[in-house]
Write a structure and sequence with these properties.
The chain is an alpha/beta fold. The protein contains ten helices and ten strands. The protein has one domain. It has an eight-stranded mixed beta sheet with strand order 1-2-10-9-3-6-4-5. A two-stranded antiparallel ribbon has the order 7-8. Strand 9 and strand 10 form a beta hairpin.
Length: 298
Amino acid sequence: MAEAARRMRHVLEGAAAWMMFGFFGLMNLDRASSLGGWLGRMIGPRLKISNVARRNLGHAFPEKSQGEIEQLVTAMWDNLGRVTAEYPHLHQLRLYDEDGKWPGRVTVEGAQYLDLLRDDGKPGIFFSAHLGNWEINAMSAVQRGLPLTLVYRAPNNPLTDGLIRHARRAITRSFAAKGSSGARDSLRILGQGGHLALLADQKMNDGIAVPFFGREAMTAPALAQLALKFKCPVVPARVVRTRGAHFRMTLYPPLEIPQSGDKPADVAVLMGQVNGIIEGWVRENPEQWMWIHRRWPD
């Protein structure tokens, strides 16, 4: 009975997700983004999961009043609603380069670091966070001629997972789901000189404790382990929403990879750099980060 109930729940959730995808796909990008933001603002703050966001924001910004926290929660849901509504339109999110030669909705700063990974003949890793519309990070690399494999945490619902993969066809068709099989895929891809893109701001219960906003957060060490194994560059990439469905993407110089010879220590140092960079991004645009994630132990 429990298995039948789970399957039925997956069918209902998956059907609702596909219907929403189709609904927003009928609109143009700007209208879909605007409506998604409005629905997010109207519905999101009333959901129980928003209490997680309030608690996380309170810990991260103890100086902020309750009213300021509520404003951030509402703004967060605006961004999440927009991201959801923009999924059917990912193929329209084209780039601008620094000279404005590529018409699009995304201004790119630091594209030379992306080109460096494309042209250096080595494997490489991009990392980002659930900030702005995070799907644009990988898309930028693909649009500049650098194929990527997306490393991601697959949803428990296979129908929802299928929808996400369908939407991401505008980016790539190469995926590595987190887990043992995804780890093998990542090793194979880097071993062949390929490139990975991943979001490094999610909790991993069996990860390592690394400071994040002054608190220990269980952090997946795979990024550092892979970088140390293959001695490959690690490039931070951030996307922020500037207005509506318009964005600014910034790529940064490759991180300095520690090489003390003490692998666990080097992994901790590198992941400390990663968490520190992401924290800085979030502090600059806290309304655009996904605070509903249970990043810290309660």
